[in-house]
Automatic annotation (TrEMBL):
Cofactor: [4Fe-4S] cluster; FAD
SUPFAM superfamilies for the chain: 4Fe-4S ferredoxins, FAD/NAD(P)-binding domain
Metal-binding recorded as keyword: yes
Keyword Iron in record: yes
Pathway assigned to this chain's UniProt record: Cofactor metabolism; coenzyme M-coenzyme B heterodisulfide reduction; coenzyme B and coenzyme M from coenzyme M-coenzyme B heterodisulfide: step 1/1
EC number: 1.8.-.-
Pfam families noted in UniProt: FAD_oxidored (PF12831), Fer4_10 (PF13237), Fer4_9 (PF13187)
Family: Belongs to the HdrA family.
InterPro entries in the record: 4Fe4S_Fe-S-bd (IPR017896), 4Fe4S_Fe_S_CS (IPR017900), FAD/NAD-bd_sf (IPR036188), HdrA-like (IPR039650)
Identification of the protein by name: CoB--CoM heterodisulfide reductase iron-sulfur subunit A
Length: 651
């Protein structure tokens, strides 16, 4: 087998530490056809490889990671080929040029040894569902759904809360133009609700994901509302009738206010329907859900909410299932747009987080919003009086080895936004911002920061060491100004903690159900951090918004639209070509069943003790190959080929 070896300099990424000329000299002396190029991924290098396609039986491409360019090389190389990673495995991790070059030579020889054992996979075609499941009903999910619906796909929006809209429903303004957040999200909600080919499933969670790219099956659980939404008009009379003792902290106001057991998620909820919370319910008249209570008069007792409902949407005598309704949908592709959460203020013992006057950035959004607990008037939560001074503290939980080492990206800008809104509405209030670094990159954001300073907002570089509660209800702020080298001490009426943006554990669980990776920061990992930022390791599953990492509204919308185009590109062909890489030699097989037991995707079944691999379900993971005691399983580009590669490495 004549082998062609092509070595990439990758600019200087590889050649700076790997002696390419030495590799060429050694390999050419052994009779191999060897060529090098500054960039093997360039068009002239492509032509160089094509010129030798008829002269060799296989190629060893010694370049960078196969994740970067395997699809590119496979698009035009018609012979077996192996990609050897000289950049990430040789040049980047090793400072010693001699050692890096020796390692590169060993890896290339291992690739040479592997090449003869690579087989061409067989292919089958499968029809794809022309529908998309969008998990998350915030601005990312809504934007992507609208774009997909315009392209003609049926879209299922799956949202765990009782309303779509996400975090933007809670905001007053969006930087840098300080335009109305409700106006932005409300218009999108109107558009998505009017689209004929979009189905919205709120108060619904993902229980299980099965199937394969192009034909996913999602098992969903619609949680129990205990209200007939077909009859409910959202009038709110049941809420008025619900007693005050049936109260719990409001999710929409982030605990600043309370809601009753009967509630509508937000003033602009869609769908605007009532929900009953059985955990908060006090069971008026001792009438529990699913029971009937008869009065002496012979009439059935009705709870206040039942009496108040003009349409009969509430019937507590019905035996509702607390587990909700289980149903299934099929989708050709899945888009994860599950949003984010900010860390609770109770996560930080260094601050008196138990005090109502210490709030998070999201809680301040609710205070400033006209739909918030004070109707947009800035009042101290404990006293309901206008504050004289407010202190913002940045990087609480971010850029901190105790919590999250990453920057949450949006905190600097939303602190500046909130501080500006406060100062513009109440110039007499003293506003302080304590920061490590102000990060305001991009168009209009530096100007936004400059204007905040001109408004008289005191922006101090340096951490806050302590926040002490005083007897008069105020808070003493003890910090440091690193620009002047002086300690800082003053009193404030409120402290706003810019707590870290993170992904909820429940959202990570949804990703794990799809066998997706979670990165070291706790977000769902993309396929490639630069080239494939909204693709995942599984074809047909895409990312949009903060599920992949902290983003502002502009970035989120941009990624949602891009992800929608990628979904359309994936589903647009109508059918998908699948490589069959794993084979079973039935003559060698003893019928032990180890491959069937070990397959995590249930892709192997047996009839008359003869195992068979379903190419649609198989992910070519190689587990069956590794557990087969008689080596009846083989793989086209893995399996025995990898064993020979390892043998070549040892040699």
């Amino acid at each position: 087998m004549k082998k062609g070896i092509f070595i990439c300099h990758c600019g200087t990424n590889i050649s700076e530490r790997v002696n390419v000329e030495h590799l060429k000299s050694v390999l050419e002396s052994e009779g191999y056809l060897v060529r090098d190029h500054l960039f093997l991924c360039s068009q002239d290098a492509k032509q160089l490889i094509l010129n030798f396609q008829d002269e060799v039986d296989g190629f060893v491409i010694a370049a960078c990671s196969s994740e970067n360019h395997e699809n590119y090389f496979s698009s035009f190389i018609r012979k077996p080929f192996v990609i050897i990673n000289l950049r990430e495995q040789c040049s980047w991790p090793h400072a010693d040029r001699k050692h890096a070059t020796k390692k590169a030579e060993d890896l290339i020889r291992a690739g040479i040894n592997k090449l003869p054992y690579i087989k061409k996979p067989k292919t089958v075609k499968t029809k794809m569902e022309e529908s998309v499941a969008v998990i998350g009903g915030g601005i990312a999910g809504i934007t992507a759904s609208i774009e997909l619906a315009k392209l003609g796909y049926r879209v299922y929006i799956i949202e765990k809360s009782p309303s779509i809209g996400g975090k933007l429903l809670k905001f007053d303004k969006i930087y840098p133009l300080n335009d109305c957040a409700s106006c932005v999200i409300s218009s999108l909600i109107s558009e998505v609700s009017a689209a004929e080919n979009i189905q919205i499933h709120v108060y619904t969670e993902v229980e299980e994901v099965s199937g394969y790219p192009g034909n996913f099956r999602l098992r969903l659980r619609r949680k129990q509302t205990y209200v007939d939404w077909e009859k409910c008009t959202g009038c709110g009379k049941c809420i008025d009738a619900c007693p005050d003792r049936a109260k719990v902290p409001s999710e929409f106001d982030d605990g600043l206010t309370f809601r009753k057991a009967m509630y509508i998620y937000s003033p602009f909820a869609y769908p605007k329907k009532a929900v009953h919370d059985p955990e908060a319910c006090v069971n008026c008249g001792k009438k529990k859900i699913g029971t009937r209570r008869m009065l002496r008069s012979g009439k059935e007792y009705q709870t206040p909410c039942e009496k108040a409902c003009p349409t009969g949407a509430i019937d507590r005598s019905k035996n509702w299932n607390p587990e909700g309704e289980i149903f299934e949908i099929r989708a050709g592709s899945i888009l994860l747009a599950m949003g984010y959460e900010v860390m609770s203020k109770n996560s930080f013992p260094e601050f008196p987080s138990h005090l109502p006057n210490v709030v998070t950035g999201i809680q301040m959004e609710r205070i400033l919003s006209p739909t918030g607990p004070t109707g947009g008037e800035l009042l101290v939560p404990e006293t309901l009086r206008k504050p004289e001074a407010i202190s913002f503290i940045s990087c609480v939980g971010s850029r901190d080895e105790r919590y999250h080492t990453y920057c949450s990206k949006v905190c600097c800008m939303y602190m500046l936004k909130q501080a500006r809104l406060i100062k513009e509405r109440n110039p007499e209030i003293d506003v302080f911002i304590h920061y490590i670094d102000i990060r305001a990159p991009g168009r209009d954001l530096e100007e936004y920061y400059t204007l905040a300073r001109k408004l008289g907002i005191k922006i101090l570089r340096g951490r806050v060491g302590n926040v002490e509660p005083l007897n008069n209800g105020k808070l003493r702020i003890l910090g440091f100004d690193s620009d002047t080298g002086d300690p800082v001490e003053y009193t404030a009426d409120m402290v706003v903690l810019a707590t870290a943006v993170e992904l909820r554990e429940s959202e990570r669980d949804v990703a794990r159900k799809m066998k997706l990776d979670i990165d070291s920061s706790g977000f769902v990992k993309e396929k490639h951090p630069k080239l494939q930022t909204f693709e995942t390791s599984i074809d047909g599953i895409y990312l949009a918004g903060c599920v992949q990492g902290p983003k502002d509204v502009t970035e989120t919308v941009l990624q949602a639209k891009s992800a929608a185009l990628s979904v359309s590109s994936f589903l647009g062909k109508g059918e998908r070509e699948i490589n069959i890489e794993t084979f079973i030699d039935v003559e060698k097989c003893t019928g032990c069943g180890m491959c069937i037991i070990s397959c995590p995707f249930r892709a192997i079944t047996a009839e008359n003790d003869i195992p068979e691999i379903n190419p649609i379900s198989c992910r070519n993971c190689g587990i069956c190959y590794s557990v087969c005691p008689v080596k009846a399983v083989d793989m086209a580009t893995h399996g025995k080929a990898i064993e020979k590669e390892l043998e070549g490495l040892k040699a």
